[in-house]
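Students often ask why inverse folding is considered easier than folding. One informal answer: many sequences map to the same fold, so there is more than one right answer. In these notes we will look at a single instance of the problem. The structure comes first.
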């Protein structure tokens, strides 16, 4: 396999992991968090259920953390080696390309801190429940950080869907790509609303 073919294959894998499993997990995670809008007890029940799934540690490592590390580290490599031409060609897609890279870096930092504040603390005897999240976002600075992180992560996922559809050959015509741009925008708005509404419920 040539270097060009290898790079193309890695980019396809990077795109795939951003949607499956990471995109699926993102939506599932936000929906679990959204149970906090119903009640503290509803969130604790949902969180306990997710934490008691069979082989949960195996699933977290191989379905979430390893894909996140690969997608995030390779994504940062792309972000810092890509050529940006928005100053010369200020088209909509060029700006989306730039925002995709910026949002990816923000999302990677946000996810790393979020994992440390929640999942890593489990190993120190802290329970993942409503009170844990409340204590974090009760601090206005952390609340703003979480809102920015959620918006950046959801944007990265939603816009990444557009790239995924192109990369994997599902949308080849200009019309199909334009339609997918609208679909991505709707997904961004809807999922961002769910995520922000969920985090505000912990205050």
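Output (designed amino acids):
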């Amino acid at each position: 396999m040539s270097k060009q073919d290898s790079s193309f294959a890695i980019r396809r894998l990077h795109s795939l992991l951003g949607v499956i499993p990471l995109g699926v997990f993102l939506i599932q995670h936000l929906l679990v968090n959204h149970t906090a809008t119903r009640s503290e007890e509803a969130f604790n029940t949902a969180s306990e259920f997710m934490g008691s799934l069979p082989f949960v540690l195996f699933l977290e490592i191989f379905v979430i953390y390893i894909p996140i590390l690969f997608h995030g580290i390779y994504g940062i490599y792309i972000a810092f080696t890509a050529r940006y031409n928005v100053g010369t060609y200020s088209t909509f897609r060029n700006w989306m390309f730039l925002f995709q890279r910026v949002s990816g870096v923000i999302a990677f930092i946000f996810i790393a801190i979020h994992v440390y504040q929640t999942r890593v603390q489990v190993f120190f005897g802290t329970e993942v429940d409503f009170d844990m999240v409340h204590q974090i976002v009760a601090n206005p600075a952390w609340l703003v950080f979480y809102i920015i992180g959620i918006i950046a992560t959801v944007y990265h996922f939603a816009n990444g869907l557009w790239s995924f559809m192109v990369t994997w050959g599902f949308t080849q015509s200009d019309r199909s790509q334009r339609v997918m741009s609208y679909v991505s925008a709707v997904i961004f708005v809807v999922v961002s609303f769910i995520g922000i509404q969920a985090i505000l419920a912990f205050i």
